[in-house]
Amino acid sequence: ACVRACVCARAYADGCKKTAVVFEDVIAGLDIINCQSVQAQVTGATPIVNIDKSDGCQIYLSEKCKEASIITAKSSEMNIMVPKTGSPGEYTECALPEQFSNKWNGKGFTTEPTDIAA
Asked: Is pLDDT of 44 > 70?
């Protein structure tokens, strides 16, 4: 399935399989929850992309939202496509880490991607 929207307050993809979502601007953010094999493209701006309990997500960001926060939990196979500066239509693919190492530093825990995930 493919869904296209212009401007909305918040966009949700919940429980979707093999779905593509394209939107211009999302004021509050995009949520991808319990999904498999989902593609989302932001042609305008959004402050947040939230990926939760999902596998196989490919997110295309626009020049306007390269600084968006990408929040992930319990998800795998997440790739963020970031536009190359000065090369319209070309993207750099960035895989997000799935595995982290947490170490006690005497005051709290520090969290970093593992070498396997990097």
From this structure: yes
